[in-house]
Design goal:
TauD/TfdA-like; four-stranded antiparallel sheet; 9 helices; alpha+beta; AlphaKG_dependent_hydroxylases; 29% strand; globular; iron; oxidoreductase; 21 strands
Length: 334
């Protein structure tokens, strides 16, 4: 079936599939995107995400121009990354360097920051022969499907992200903060309500306390908005986790998550959250030249495992402050 918006876009809506529209504008993607920016924003506000086929995007320069034309509030420079990315231009990145044979679970990009993208922009330059789709899930539907007692606890307590930065695995201090200068890193942490501790080997351990449920600043909908499951160590491949624990100890893992009161979040909770995400997942295999827009608060996104070459560029647009989303826990930035 299809749904017509006030801007005359014909959006193809199919159960279990990401809403789609056909652009038929090969060779003029930047102009088309800028011309239809407001109409596309209305589609994303209504449906949470849309995949646009027919632009025939070919290279990073063209993608950057499309992203800039769509980002009403500008493109963001990534900070506090959990994995490395290649930079293709100001605000234009590769997808995160994550093992192709391991899926990236559903999450909301940078939901542990005090300021995060309101919109995620994805452009596919080459699609893998198998897998690799960027999937989405409605965050309000996920919230409604989770057990009430779990939601109430997380609304009351929030969640804690614990990270260990070193030069051997995961994001380094320089990757995450854009500098290795200790003073600058400490200033950033204090300004962004991040507790920190330098380790004897020169590494850095941080803790940050955030809300798990927020209100969408535009629609007012209550949204499940966090990376509790994705950044929990129980999500890691069991062999990888065992190796990391043996090497760095249980407190030295690159990342894990806890309840806001400090209690561990066990594998049963992580599995439950991921099962709910799975039930709400919408997917559409990438085709080269595709563009996808995702409301980063209203929808979570994931990445399937894949084989073969895959090039998907990413932009983080239209920054939103956590303070403007009715957080359920209070954090004090210095």
């Amino acid at each position: 079936m299809s749904s017509s918006t006030a801007f005359s876009f014909d959006v193809d809506l199919q159960p279990g599939r990401i809403p789609m529209l056909q652009a038929d504008s090969i060779g003029d993607g930047p102009r088309w995107a800028a011309l239809h920016r407001d109409a596309l924003a209305a589609v994303v506000a209504e449906h949470g995400a849309v995949l646009i086929r027919g632009l025939g995007l070919r290279d990073a320069t063209e993608v950057a121009a499309v992203f800039r034309g769509l980002a009403t509030g500008g493109l963001m420079t990534e900070r506090e990354a959990f994995a490395e990315r290649q930079t293709y231009g100001e605000g234009v990145y590769s997808s995160s360097k994550w093992p192709p044979n391991q899926p990236m679970c559903m999450h909301h990009e940078l939901s542990y920051r005090l300021e995060f993208p309101g919109q995620m922009l994805f452009a596919c330059l080459s699609a893998p022969p198998k897998g690799g789709a960027t999937c989405v899930a409605d965050s309000t539907a996920v919230l409604d499907a989770l057990p009430r007692d779990l939601v109430e606890r997380l609304e009351r307590e929030g969640w804690i992200l614990v990270r260990n930065y070193n030069k051997e695995i995961g994001a380094s201090v320089a990757n995450a903060f854009g500098t290795e200068d200790r003073g600058a890193v400490e200033c950033y942490c204090r300004a962004n309500a991040i507790e920190f501790e330098w380790q004897p080997d020169g590494g850095l351990r941080t803790w940050q306390h955030r809300s798990a449920v927020v209100r969408h600043p535009v629609t007012g909908r209550r949204c499940w908005f966090n990376q509790i499951a994705f950044l929990n160590d129980e999500t890691l491949d069991p062999e990888v986790r065992e190796f990391l624990v043996d090497t760095y100890g249980p407190e030295g893992l690159p990342f894990t998550t806890r309840f806001g009161g400090g209690d561990a979040i066990g594998g049963d909770v992580v599995a439950l959250i991921n099962e709910v995400y799975q039930a709400e997942t919408m997917r559409e295999p990438w085709q080269a030249g595709d563009l996808m827009l995702v409301d980063n608060i209203g929808s979570a996104h994931s990445r399937e495992s894949f084989t073969g070459p895959r090039t998907v560029l990413v932009g983080m647009a239209d920054p939103v402050r956590l303070a403007d989303c009715s957080p359920t826990v209070t954090v004090n930035a210095g």
